[in-house]
From TrEMBL:
PROSITE patterns per UniProt: RCK_C, RCK_N
Protein name: Trk system potassium uptake protein TrkA
Superkingdom in the source lineage: Bacteria
Domain called RCK N-terminal: residue spans: 1-116
Organism taxonomic ancestry: Bacteria, Pseudomonadati, Bacteroidota, Cytophagia, Cytophagales
A GO molecular function held by the record: monoatomic cation transmembrane transporter activity
Domain RCK C-terminal: 134-229
TM ranges: none
Biological process according to GO: potassium ion transport
SUPFAM superfamilies recorded: NAD(P)-binding Rossmann-fold domains, TrkA C-terminal domain-like
Entry-linked Pfam families: TrkA_N
Length: 229
């Protein structure tokens, strides 16, 4: 996949490096030449430029990029302006970093696809989340094994855990099933709540909006995630 990461501070540089190590093409951008020089040997491409300059940004290969991630953390104004420019130009998927709750609301108003909180989430976790297609969340136990949350592939809807054969076919363990349940409030309004079913049973039937919590090796998880949604 192709990524553009704008902002090569600790989080941005680390994420860019890990995505490059996974075999992705990454363009790292920062207006600080020192940061660009520090990462140029570790990622695919680096550019020193001001991302708040719309004319300059428009020259980037945005249409050919799968994900653009604004990781600027020191300058909230530059983060917002850069995000707004890229949103206006249009990209396949735009992710931006939030520095505080008010900043997050502004990013939501701009219409980003996802928001990062580096103080709570590591670059390793985001690298895995971005590299493994259809992963909603992940937790890396070590270099080889992880726990992930993933959507149920279309072909498996209506089948039981036993019928699918997660252990035999994919060498994976289903820890639990997270379901989206529609509930009514005391005022009669309906809302969707997330409910964890507890330890998964072999007889549990998978439904369209279910989320699977899976444990296994990264290699086996990647094989499973290639299944059709």
């Amino acid at each position: 996949m192709k990524y553009i990461i704008i902002g090569l501070g600790n989080f941005g540089a680390s994420l860019a490096q890990k995505l490059t190590e996974e075999g992705n093409e990454v363009i790292g951008i920062d207006r600080n030449m020192t940061k660009v020089d520090a990462t140029k040997e570790k990622i695919s491409h680096t550019i020193c430029m001001d991302s708040t300059d719309e004319f300059t940004v428009s020259g980037l290969p945005l249409k050919d990029t799968d994900i653009v991630l604004v990781a600027i953390g020191e300058d909230q104004g530059a983060n917002i302006m850069t995000t707004a420019i890229i949103k206006n130009i249009g990209v396949k998927r735009l992710i931006s970093r939030a520095i505080n709750p008010l900043h997050e609301k502004v990013l939501q108003a701009i219409g980003v696809d996802e928001i990062i909180h580096p103080e709570e989430e590591t670059a390793e976790r985001w690298a895995k989340k971005l590299c493994l297609h259809n992963v909603l969340d992940s937790f890396e136990l070590n270099d080889d094994y992880s726990i992930i949350e993933a959507k149920v592939p279309t072909d498996y809807v209506g089948k039981t855990v036993r019928e699918i054969g997660f252990r035999k076919k994919f060498n994976l363990l289903v820890l639990t099933i997270i379901k989206k349940v529609e509930v009514k409030s005391n005022l009669g309004k309906t809302k969707i709540e997330t409910r964890i079913q507890g330890v998964a049973s072999a007889d549990d039937i998978l439904e369209p909006n279910d989320i699977l919590a899976l444990f296994g090796s990264n290699k086996d998880l990647q094989a499973f995630l290639k299944q059709k949604l």
